[in-house]
Amino acid sequence: MRKSILFILLMFVVSLTSNAQKYALIDMEYILENIPAYTRANEQLNELSQKWQDEIEALSQEAQRIYKEYQVQYASLTDGQRTKKEEEVIAKEKGISELKRKYFGPEGELTKRRQAAMQPIQDDIYEAVKEIAEQNGYSVVIDRASATSVIFASPRIDISNEVLFKLGYSD
Predict the structure, then answer these.
(1) Crossing angle of the two packed helices 79-104 and 36-73, in degrees rounded to 10
(2) Which pTM was predicted?
(3) Alpha-carbon span 43 to 35, nearest angstrom
(4) Distance (Å, whole) CA 96 – CA 60
(5) Which one-letter DSSP state was computed for residue 170?
(6) Which of 79, 122, 129, 145 has the fewest CB atoms within 10 Å distance of its CB?
(7) What SS3 state is found at 108?
(8) What is the pLDDT of residue 97?
(9) How many helices (H) and strands (E) does the chain have?
(10) What torsion do the CA atoms of 116, 122, 126, 132 make, to the nearest 10 degrees?
(11) How far is CA 150 from the centre of its chain?
């Protein structure tokens, strides 16, 4: 009887061990920092963003200049001229708002260009992670850069360098 219980207990422990899942971590920020195409794309997007920001700033200064002129000339303008100047200032500010939304809004040009530049890089990383996970039997691969609930993880399970190697970016 004792041998039966011991045998069943041993089988239970073996079955639990055989079903254990393997985990791995990646650090997406570290991987992206080591991919030259990502760095170049980021620099180009930052330059484009700065160019658009400068354009918007110039238009804002123009709107401020028109408004200040309006304030200085207010007393000498007729009601029709005042209305015309007010409409001009409002139209200028509305144009600036539309331009900001066009360039920087959630569906703006910057978002579209960032998606177009980054998607191929992210797809390559995903495929490399997938291949490594399948080869090594990992059930789950977690991105430590975005996993806020990971308090500690052993560096032994970090496969970021393997991903970079698979992509051809490290030795």
Answers:
(1) 170
(2) 0.71
(3) 13
(4) 7
(5) -
(6) 79
(7) coil
(8) 95
(9) 6, 2
(10) 140
(11) 20
**CB distance 110 to 48 below 8 Å:** yes
Tokens matching residue 2: 């004792």
Residue 79 parent element (H or E): helix 79-104
Joined tokens for residue 94: 């509305």
Distance CA 124, CA 122 (A): 5
Contact 143, 29 (CB under 8 A): no
Mean pLDDT (10-residue bins), the chain, 171 residues:
55 52 88 93 96 96 92 89 91 95 94 94 93 90 77 78 87 57
Alpha-carbon distance values, 116 to 9, 50, 110, 123, 130 (Å): 56, 19, 10, 11, 22
